[in-house]
Design a protein that fits this description.
Blueprint lengths: L1 E6 L7 H5 L7 E5 L2 E10 L4 E9 L1 H6 L9 H6 L9 H10 L1 H4 L7 H4 L3 E11 L3 H9 L5 E8 L9 E13 L1 H16 L8 H10 L10 H8 L4 H14 L5 H16 L3 H15 L4 E5 L5 H7 L6 E6 L2 H10 L7 H4 L2 E5 L14 E5 L10 H12 L3 E7 L26 H15 L2 E7 L10 E7 L1
Parallel strand pairs: 8-9, 8-11, 9-10, 11-12
Antiparallel strand pairs: 1-4, 1-5, 2-3, 3-4, 5-7, 6-7, 12-14, 13-14
Helix pairs in contact: 4-8, 8-10, 9-11, 10-11, 13-14
Bound molecules: S-adenosyl-L-homocysteine.
EC number: 2.1.1.386
Family: Belongs to the methyltransferase superfamily. HEN1 family.
Protein name: Small RNA 2'-O-methyltransferase
Length: 466
């Protein structure tokens, strides 16, 4: 079984530092089920490829009583595809040989380990139960370009048709640790065969490796069930915990922080002014179908419901807890039928393309982008401006220049502890212009809140139109 990873990052030989494996020194590792060999078929500054070659010993597996046993008869224990295909054994080998890289740490290149890089993974033989469509459903939402070549069952007997084996290439601009973790979790899911390692601790492993992407993956349920080998009780536990984990931070913490931010801005009732400004833009757009992305506890949704122009209102958020609060506050369960039909809440993430976001004429994204990790902004941009593509987008974010006017805010700190960044007007404007160039939109900027001659308004809003 062969897995190769290539990069064209410059200098590409840095891959050796990220993997903690010297490109000039082939290494072998003994595993309980065979051997893993790591070597570099190419290592130049322009392009470097590392190979992980896994030899699985099926006879040893039976002797050690680790491999598939029982079903399929004795012969199947010795003659099977395990030595040749990517399976949970490859995942174990990945975790053993590239442990540091998988956790995102690198002694020599710590910054690079946190950066998205141009990466290509190639799996020589990947069994795909569910075929190419399922393969795509797993990897495409994570931003990979997938190429798959299906192999015949027997090339000399074409009538037998296709096998379930594919040669697969996955290409993305992503962090190495993300790529390794996605492979670690998803290879056994595609194989959907027996692992010898499913137990309670697998729930922990799945949650740990799924952190940051699994909770909101459109195929989350089937990934979880297959990864945990259809053991209902384990899968249920994992899914419950994944839903709980979706809130970006523990509930009490979030509420406290939201209050801190609210207190800071309350003097201006900035929140109210922001909502009014966004409602005005959405009304002016003439849209009837609108979506509020990162709707939180539903403050804008309430305002939108008051406007009869909006016949189809969708609120989307990654935090299940916030959606529950929104549901209560809007009193959805007791809303008259006609009113109830106008509004829907959707649990989803702005990191993933989502067909359910298509067809909305206008979108709002209020105070959300500053909660996203900067390397992930590109994924968000594609989800909204390339895939969902509403005619109008109203997007707000704090204006960092205004922070000096908040007396209680220590210099150099953000308004909310979960903010990953706060931009000056110039930074925001240049980001927005980039979007226009890449996705064919135009943009205008509106200040929200009292306008200060030196530092501008506390909130900045961009209105994109196409
Ligand atoms: N728009 C609301 C909430 C802003 S707080 C308001 O103005 O009141 C930011 C919100 O973005 C939170 O509810 C958070 O859960 C949500 N969020 C953060 N990351 C997200 C993601 N990747 N996808 C969808 N929502 C996300």
């Amino acid at each position: 079984m062969l897995l190769t990873l290539s990069t064209t990052h410059h200098p590409a030989t840095d891959l050796g530092y990220l993997l903690h494996k010297n490109p000039h020194r082939p290494q072998s590792f003994e595993l309980s089920f065979g051997h893993a060999h790591v070597f570099y078929p190419e290592a130049t500054e322009a392009r470097t490829t590392v190979a992980l070659l896994l030899e699985v010993d099926p006879v040893g597996l039976v002797r050690e009583r680790r491999g598939p046993s029982g079903e399929g008869g004795v012969l199947a224990q010795y003659v099977n595809d395990r030595p040749y295909v990517a399976s949970s054994f490859l995942s174990v080998a990945l975790a053993r040989t590239f442990r540091n890289a998988m956790s995102g740490s690198s002694k020599e290149r710590p910054d690079l380990a946190r950066q998205p890089l141009p990466l290509v993974a190639r799996l020589s033989v990947l069994p795909c139960r569910g075929g190419e469509p399922f393969l795509r459903k797993l990897f495409e939402p994570l931003g990979y370009t997938v190429t798959a070549t299906r192999h015949a069952l027997d090339e000399t007997v074409p009538d037998w048709g296709h096998s379930r084996y594919f040669t697969v290439t996955l290409e993305a601009h992503t962090r190495l640790s993300d790529l390794l973790t996605h492979l670690y979790v998803l290879i056994p899911v595609l194989d959907d065969d027996k692992h010898y390692w499913v137990g309670d601790e697998e729930v922990e492993k799945l949650l740990r490796h799924g952190e940051g992407w699994l909770a909101a993956h459109p195929e989350r349920d089937i990934i979880t069930r297959r990864y945990l080998r259809h053991r209902r009780s384990l899968a249920r536990e994992a899914l419950e915990r994944l839903s709980g984990d979706e809130a970006p931070e523990p509930e009490e913490g979030t509420q406290a922080r939201n209050q801190e931010e609210a207190a800071l801005e309350s003097r201006l009732s900035l929140n109210e002014q922001r909502l009014q400004a966004v409602v005005a833009v959405l009304k002016e757009s003439g849209a009837t179908r609108v979506v509020d992305l990162g709707c939180g506890e539903g403050k804008l949704l309430r305002a939108l419901l008051k406007e009869r122009q909006f016949t189809d209102i969708l609120g989307m958020d990654v935090s299940f807890r916030s959606l529950e609060i929104a549901r209560d506050r809007l009193d959805l369960d007791r809303m008259p039928e006609l009113q109830r039909r106008r509004i829907q809440l959707l649990h989803g993430s702005l990191m993933y393309r989502d067909a359910r976001l298509a067809g909305y004429e206008a979108a709002s994204v209020i105070e959300v982008i500053e909660h996203l990790d900067p390397p992930r902004l590109a994924a968000f941009e594609r989800v909204l401006f390339e895939s969902a593509r509403p005619n109008v987008v109203a997007l707000t974010t704090p204006n960092a220049e205004y922070n000096v006017r908040f007396e209680s805010l220590p210099a150099g700190t953000f308004r909310h502890r979960d903010h990953r960044f706060e931009w000056t007007r110039a930074e925001f404007e240049s980001w927005a212009q980039g979007i226009c160039e890449r996705f064919g939109y135009s943009v205008r900027f509106l200040p929200v809140g009292p306008l200060d001659p030196d530092v501008g308004a506390p909130t900045q809003m961009a209105v994109f139109a196409r």
